[in-house]
Amino acid sequence: MAEQLGAPRFLTVAEVAELMRVSKMTVYRMVHAGELPAVRMGRSFRVPQAAVEHLISEGLGEWGQASASGR
User: Fold this and answer.
1) CATH number for the domain harbouring residue 56
2) Residue 3 lies in a domain
3) 26: how many CB neighbours lie within 10 A of its CB?
4) Per the database record, which ranges form the Helix-turn-helix domain (predicted)?
């Protein structure tokens, strides 16, 4: 339903860790350092999916841009 309304999608720390192929502790460190935005919900964090996608594409640098353009 949230996707139908155009609301942002949020990921758990475990989902972010899996996508980025890092440990959950690394994700927590990134959140606490301000490198990755997150919303605290109770005792856990939720990370906007768009922020994770941006961070991954930023990390790819020129290679990711060439890949995205179909070269």
Assistant:
1) 1.10.1660
2) no
3) 15
4) 10-58
Question: Model pTM?
Answer: 0.74
Strand partners, 10: 48
Each residue of 6-55: pLDDT tens digit?
888 999 999 999 999 999 999 999 999 999 999 999 999 999 999 999 99
Element (H, E) at 31: helix 24-33
Structure tokens at 60: 């790819």
User: What SS3 class is residue 47?
Assistant: strand
Degrees, nearest 5: CA angle 6-9-26: 155
Strand order in the sheet with 44-48: 10-12, 44-48, 39-41
